[in-house]
Fold these 2 entries.
Entry 1:
Amino acid sequence: MKVQSLARSLAALLASALFVFSVALAGVFLPSCGSLAQAAGIAAGAAGAAGLIDSDVAGAITTSTDAIGRALEEITPEQEYYIGRAVGATILARYRIYTGSPARTLYVNKILQAVVVNSPKPELYNGYHALILDSPEINAFATSGGHVFVTLGLVNTAASEDALAAVLAHEVAHIQLQHSLKAIRTSRITTAVMATGSAAVNLAASGTSLAELTDIFDESITDIVGTMVNNGYSRDQEFEADALALSLLSRAGYDPSSLIEMLRALETGLGNSDGGFGRTHPAPRDRISSANRQLASVPRPSDTRAARGGRFAESR
């Protein structure tokens, strides 16, 4: 009996390997969701015909393929908003909203609107909104729903309206580049594939049903949200957001070099801190180097910083 059980487990592992390999091939040659299902079906059928898996395992592979297919579906603007709202709720469970100065929050939102109205994507399902978080920590977050969160510590670090606009432009860039959605999609696919492999082995060894695989797959989004907030985006995505932020600042009439000004302030303010911004973003010096290379190709608007000095001072 032990030999038979081991043989079934090995067969299930091979079937899972065939499945994952078929998904990889489909991603290269047959990028549609239907092609993914077709490729998985071919793999399951071949393994079944060879006597490597039974009908239960083949059915489990098909079920999990449906979950992966859903992961690759286009997310609608409404779904972007509700996913973003869930992320926002997670952030607000960790931070208090700053209520010390409603006028200051309004000021930050006016800067945000100036940035987005001149951007390539000025409208979202429920618009763009900013909140100041009552924390001395230096950090900022943005969700796919258009929610921008900036800590009081980061707002206080900005030495000018243009520098504050640079912070907001960077977060808007994350939204418009759909970085949070890309993180969700990647993790959802990985979770589904991993669940498929382990569940197939369990089914072969103990007869456990895989009816809940799709539920496990969907629930993983909660873990993904936590990962995004704790670990931040990749270095490449941060550099990509900085590059777009330079363009957004220029379009809105702000000095694009204010991004570098802000990064230098952050470099001084962060020191050797590993928490907050230092944990979720690349080192400011690396971002300064990258932004400087991009700056030469960004149009420079007329210098109107002096006209913004008075209202910035009043907002402090």
Entry 2:
Amino acid sequence: MKSTILFFLTLFTVTTYGQTVFSESFDEADDAITGSDAIGPATWTTTCPGSIAASDYFKVNAGKLEARDTNSPAATWTTGDIDISSCTGLDISFTIEELSNMEECIDCGGTGAPCIDWVKLEYNLDGGGWTEVAGVTCALAESPGEMIQIGDIPMGGPLDFTSPCIDFGSTIQLRISCKCWAGDEVWRFDDIVVSCNDCVLPVEIIDYKAVQNSNGMQINWTSINERSNDYFLLERSYDGVKYETVKKIEGAGSSSDDIAYSVTDKKAKLGKVIYYRLTQFDFDGKSNYTEIISVESNPTTKIFYSNNQLHYSVQGKQFQHLHIYNLNGQLVHEEVVSESGSIPWNRSGFFLIEIPETNHHQKLVTP
């Protein structure tokens, strides 16, 4: 029996910007190529392997990190481990400026030279390897991967950059890579900050749906990530306003595996629109995720013969018309029924039963 399922999604997240776990404003002395931030402290160092003259560098200058005429390969600024164990999600922010003009990129849809002036941001979470922060990609030899800035910044900047949400862990390393290929071209970076926030949901749910079967309504969902997940609470409503508990389902705590959940609601009143609300709760009692689906369920009707009686159980409209026909198509019995009951029956043979209000049809054989 198929059910028409309509999905309504309500997603609640608590986005609270809180603790700063790394902050570097480059107050080191001029010409510094190593340093540490004001909080950790976490150390950092720069390299400029493409330097061919004293005027080619990546170092602190006048309170900013400055990359001048780096050539190729790219110059890099890399941190040591930053403690992010107190974060449940984080972002990286900093400012970028340019001196002189950076070439536009003919191979990225612009005009001018190939892409040789760019900035890339990467992070290494818990030592798992470097991940590029999404931006623009041209996939060429001198501009491989994702770039957060290619070519000119309007009016030279500053450009305030903030990364998308980054997952939580224990430690993170940052790496900024950049290129510029002329003596008067300079990238300047300042105020590099890593901030905790709650942008990562404690649970990610896919395939949340409800289907009707012979036992009632079956509600299924799959989690693809769980973080400190104590339990799910599944509730039912017939008006979308007042909810009652169907079941409390224990969560998996923290897991990166796909976990399938299934609950059968045997007490659902079929023949109605049913709303199911799924809410996730952390171990600290916080609820950060709620999703609601509505299901237009079909009524269930059962009719059977026993001891010279036809017993019926119908759901749906309060009053329904029960029609019984013989094999010649003649109407041999008609009765208005509601909910459940029985009808005296002493006829033998094959019969067809119909309830027009619910489009119920059934064959019946009585001895």
